[in-house]
Structures are given as structure tokens and as C-alpha cells.
Structures
1.
Amino acid sequence: METKHAYRIFSRANWIAVLVIGLVPPVIFFLQELAVNGAAHTKSLEDLGIATIFSLVVTVLLFFGVTYIIVKLHDAVPWDRHPVRRLTVETLGVLSYATIAMSLATVMFHRFFLEGSDFASLLYSNLLIGLTITIIVAAIWEGRYFLHQWKASLIHAEKLKKEMAETQYEALKNQVNPHFLFNSLNALSSLVHKDADKAEQFIAELSKIYRYVLEKNKQVVAPVKEELAFLNSYFFLQQIRFGENLKVEVNVPAEVLNRFIPSLALQILAENAVKHNEISVAHPLHVQVLSENGFLVMQNELQLRDEKAESTGIGLQNLRSRYESISEQKPEFIANGKFYIARIPLIAEE
């Protein structure tokens, strides 16, 4: 993702750069005059003054004009979305501007200061110098921009790695916390004597949960079909515990199964639903998972427990942050009084 970078066009550093770039041509011109005509050539000082004024004027026009064009193009035609169009527009834009600005400046100085000189020769040499300055300025700005983008990408990568580690830690902590283990083992112990086959399936699904969490610790995204398979294992365990009081309905079309979402995203949403809502005979919980307008949606009735469950908020916050790093779309978490709705954007490819 391309990151925003604030440029101060008329900064002190830019004015210093203008002075340095603007003074180089007249100094070179003056030294050449001295070498050819000697120190006694008094006209050299007059020519130096005219050349200095002209050079500073055109450098100001070119430097700040080109800078303005490039800064505006960063927003209008960003490199990461339209690289060919950006290269074309920027090249034509800055070269056209430089040609017009240099031509007008040459006409004005020829009329007021250099009326006796050969205009065609003067225009040719000035355009050559002006376009050279333009290319240098554009290269400086774009080099600075791409350096900033490279540094920002490194920061994003480290941030994403940290968030993935935090998500994995939170996921593992939720799976091995005493409540989860106690409830799982309690459910298993009741199954062992009643239904050996179901107890065996319970153990298999429990192992799938741990294996999936450990396997996905280094993956940024996972296919929807894998996340739904994990969700099935998770809700199997919960339905052993809550029985008919927990109903889960998954209605996701086949074409969505090969799309991607952040790994362990559905675990975060499912745990929130089970942790924060009352699930009882009087208040059964109905969880729905569906696809809607490019989003994977998990929704349930909002029936909060009287005693609020402990929550760090890390899961949902990390989910938001991870989407910032991999997509321009954002997840949505909506509590409208009757339902809690979590909408996470589907990603086309890994």
C-alpha cells in the first residue's frame, strides 16, 4: 500500500537547494569567462550579474513548479495503482512546464537584458540547461519519495509481524485458558461414558483447533474454506457444551470459498459471540455466517450476559490493523441493539 507523505514545498531545505542549484551555472559561466578573457574583462562582472539573476529566477520557477506537479500527482495518480499512467503524465507534465517556463523567462531576459544576442542560440542553450535542472529536481523528489515508501514498507512489515504474533498469542491464550480447557474436558468426560464415538470425534476436533492455530501463526491470510473448516471444529466443541441452545448456520457460496481473509479471523469473531452472549434454554444463541457484497459476515442476536466477560479488545483491534496492511477496505463491527454484526472484507488473492 502506498503511504501518505506530507511534503512542505516551500521549506527551508528547498530554498537552500534552489540557491545551490541556481548559483552553479553562473559561477561556471564566470569562471569560463575569466579563463578565456582574463580578469581584466570588466564585462564579465555584468554578465555574471545577469546570469545569476536569470539562473535563480528559472531555478525557482522550475524547482517549485516541478515539485508542485509531483506532489499533486502523488494523490491524483499514485505510483502503486497506475505506474504507466503516472510515468507518462509526470514526464509530459514536468517537461512541458519546464519548456514553457524556460521559454518565457528567456524571452523576458532577452528583451530587457540581452537584446543584442542571438535569441535562437540563447533559447536552445537555456532550454538545455532548464530541462537538465528539471530532470535533476524530478529525480531528487522521486528518489526521496521511493526511499520513504521503502522505509514505510519495512515498518508495515514489522507492524504486521507484531500483530500476527499478538493475534496468535491471544488465540493460543484463549484456547489454553483454564475456562476453555475445563469446559472442554468437562464435556469430554460426560461423553466418554455416553457416546464413545462422539467422544473420539470431540478429541479429533479439539486437536484440529490447536493444530490450525499453530499452523497459521506465520500466514497473513488464509482461504475462506480453511477458516470455515476451523470454525466448524470450534462450534462442534461449543455445541457439545451448550447443546441445542447454540445454533450455527453457515451459508457461504462456493465462489467465495477460495477468497481470502486474515488467518484466525473467524476464531476471533466466534469467540466474541460465545464469550459475551448468554446461551441458555431461555435465550438460545443463533450464529449466522454468510457472504454479502464482498464481505464475509458473522452475526448473532445481541443478548449480553449480566456479568460481562473479561475482554482485552486485542482481537478486534488487531483485525482492524491487519486489514490496514493488506487491504484498502476496513472491517465493520456493528451493534444495533438487536444484533451484533461483524463484516470482514474478502480478499481476492493471497
Note: Residues 12-156 form one domain.
2.
Amino acid sequence: MKNGVGSISFIRFGIDNIPNTLNLVAEDGSVDYNRVTFFSDASYAGLISYAQTIGSSGKFSLGGNLKIIHRSTGKFAKSWGFGTDLGLRYQGNHWIYGVNIRDITTTYNSWTFNFTDDEKLVLALNDNEIPVQSSEITLPRILSGAAYKNNYKKIGYLIEGNLVFSTDGRKSALISGKNFAIEPSLGIELDYVKRVFLRFGVNNIQKVKSITDPENTDIELLPTVGLGLKLGRLHVDYALSNIGSVSGVLVSHIFSARLDFYPKPKQP
């Protein structure tokens, strides 16, 4: 379709080499570290996306995607789910505005679990609940953002701010109520001739209980830094989150690659 673009994406987020100590203690009560195995906890998503320019000005675009989600925790637990996202974007000469509704239809994940009789016994002896089957529901969230971009000679820059509105009423969010929560994020991108990109950001700004005074709360945030390269039709990006381990979560390394298939411009 004219003035439209489509894409197919595959995403994986995971933690690898998690020790499985369910069989650490042998039948005779001895501790045998050779019985420790390792597994991964990972989330996978496949997305089919399409966006289309709307209106005569060419500044508005509307798009969405269908996503299939698979999660796996070793051989112990697996889930499958699906969902839909929808987005609207305005792009002027310098200002960009956007609204994205994630999981607009509510995303459902159905979990199944698999434990041997020996593993169930170990879990029961340690007062752990043994799951059988469950469903996970992700409620819709609205992401709104604004960005300003410009250039100074060969250096380009983009500054953006975003607000995430969710309906789960998470008390850890910076602004929250009974049935809503608002989470802000900030980002800056610098580029050199649109080929090399350097990015900085702050997200996951939330309230946590103070370690020194549990009656009070502290503000916790997640700083990130990233690097991008544009090599013809290939885009390669890397991001490092939780710089300096200032947040309570682990450091994450995020790699991504994108290949464009747009037609080459016709030679005059």
C-alpha cells in the first residue's frame, strides 16, 4: 500500500545460567554440587507490524501490530499468549508527538508447569506452592510522548519525554491511585551525520521502601546508555541499563539489529 510500511520482528529478553539446586542434596543427605544444573528464564515475542501515513499533510501516521508471546523457565514452566498494540504519531519539522496503546485488547498468557515427582517433593518440603496451571493477564497501558529534534552542522540531537499510564494502580509508580499509575521517562539522542548515535536515558522511576527507614520511601531510577550504527540498510544498536547499579535490578545488555528493504531511489 502506498505510503505504508510493514515489518516482522523477533525479540528475546532473558536471564541465562540460573542454577537449579532442587537436586543439590542427594538421597543420603549429602550435598553434591555436581548435581546442580543450569537453566534460562526467557521471554520471546514475534511481531507483525504495519503503519500507514494518513491525511493530506503526510505528518500523521497510524500503525499497529499483532504479537505472539512465549515465555519459558527452563523445563519447569512455559506459556503462550497473544496481544495487539496501536499507535498514532505526528511528525513536524522539529517536534514529534506520539501515543501508543499497548495490549489494547488485554494480553493473555496461559501457563503450564512440569515437575518430576522428586522435584515436587523438594518443593513441598520447603513449603513452596506447586503450581499446576494458571493464566496471566496484561492490562492495557497508554504511552504518550513528545520529542524535539534539530541539527547543529553535522551533529543532530533529539530530546524526548514520555509518560506511561497504566490501569493496575501499582503503588511503586511515581504517581499512583487506586486504579491508575503514571511513570515518566526521559531520553537524549546525539548523532553524527545520521550514521553514529549515542543515547542516554532514565526510566523505571519509582518509589521504594527506604533501607535505612522502612517507614519512608526513596526514589529509584534506572539509567541507561546506548550506541547505534547505521551501515547502509543495516542498523545495529546496543544498550546498557542500570549503569552503576543504582537500581535494585540487575544490569542488562540489550542488542538489536534492523534491516531495511525499502526500494532504492531512482537515478535521474
Note: Residues 117-125 form the longest helix (9 residues).
